[in-house]
Amino acid sequence: MRIKSQVSIGVVSTTDISVVILTDRGLGVRIGFKVRKIIASALKGGTGKTSTTVNLGKALYRAGSRVGLLDVDATAPTLYKALGLTDAPQWDLDTVAAKLIPFEVDGLYALTLASHYGESPAVLWDEPTLIRAMRELIHDVQWPELDYLILDSPPSSSGFMQALYDAVAGDVYGVILVFQPTDIAAADLVRTLDFIKIKRVPVLGLIANMAYCIAPSGEKFWPFISPKVELGSVCEENGIALLGEVPLTPSQSIIDKEFDKIASNMDGVHPLVLKDTMLTKLYKTMAKGVVKAAIRRL
Ligand SMILES: Nc1ncnc2c1ncn2[C@@H]1O[C@H](COP(=O)(O)OP(=O)(O)OP(=O)(O)O)[C@@H](O)[C@H]1O
Ligand SMILES: [Mg+2]
Prior knowledge:
The protein has 298 residues and is an alpha/beta fold. It has helices at residues 14-24, 49-62, 79-82, 114-117, 127-139, 159-168, 183-199, 231-238, 252-264, 276-297, and strands spanning 3-5, 12-13, 36-41, 67-71, 92-94, 99-101, 103-105, 108-112, 142-143, 148-152, 174-179, 203-209, 213-214, 220-221, 242-246. The protein has one domain: 3-Layer(aba) Sandwich (Rossmann fold), CATH 3.40.50.300. It contains ten helices and 15 strands. A hairpin with a 2-residue loop joins strand 7 and strand 8. The protein is globular and about 55 Å long. Adenosine-5'-triphosphate binds next to helix 2.
């Protein structure tokens, strides 16, 4: 594993990058360099947002993109662990520009709130302080030239999350939803979409994580007691891209393969701003799926 501080040559601020996104959103045209700012999101905890941030980042990097990862999870900033580090690297500051400098791990640039918390077991900051720290991470970082900046967000629709979405609403390329195809997670997907609609942030698509297991015979099977909700057909019926189905597996190489597929399709997927009509339809489909799953369980 290679970890080093970034040399601050040819760096730009996120503010500069944002301007480029606004001009270039959805056109698929390269104007100078651009960064696609993506949020890995789910109002539900433990769905795989951090793993997706890291695995998608690695896959995009393998495909030749320049990738930054920003951990804005205020209560459990675990991105550095998912990157394979035992400790969060200390924050590196460009004192002249008063900007934070990301660290680099195996070609990926990253920054995490964990660097600020140190070894503190629980984060006891009040919400306004957390929000101020998050805004600094969004605006005061000297990223190198990037193609993608993936934000690892916390779960919940707290004031912090709302402030996070507000902070990026104008220049975010799209949200990637990360959910397990269980009835409980599916109900949270509806809530998450509602949140996203209210925040007027486009959706890039959904990753169904822990979507199946692979038996030694190679057969796919469903590993949970609760019934499976087919998120693929929910996406299809409602025009949301299903970016991929990632199995529940201890094999990093299988996960890498799935994320390579997702990364190679990223250019063909366009972010979608949710309309009320679309959401009403989605609610109906989701509600049917969730009710059916609940009945099967009885
Ligand atoms: N497809 C998968 N196969 C096996 N393990 C997985 C998979 N996806 C995630 N995990 C594991 O599940 C746990 C939770 O994943 P992760 O931390 O990415 O979720 P999260 O949504 O970021 O959680 P939180 O809401 O707490 O931030 C981690 O231990 C991770 O390694
Ligand atoms: Mg996480």
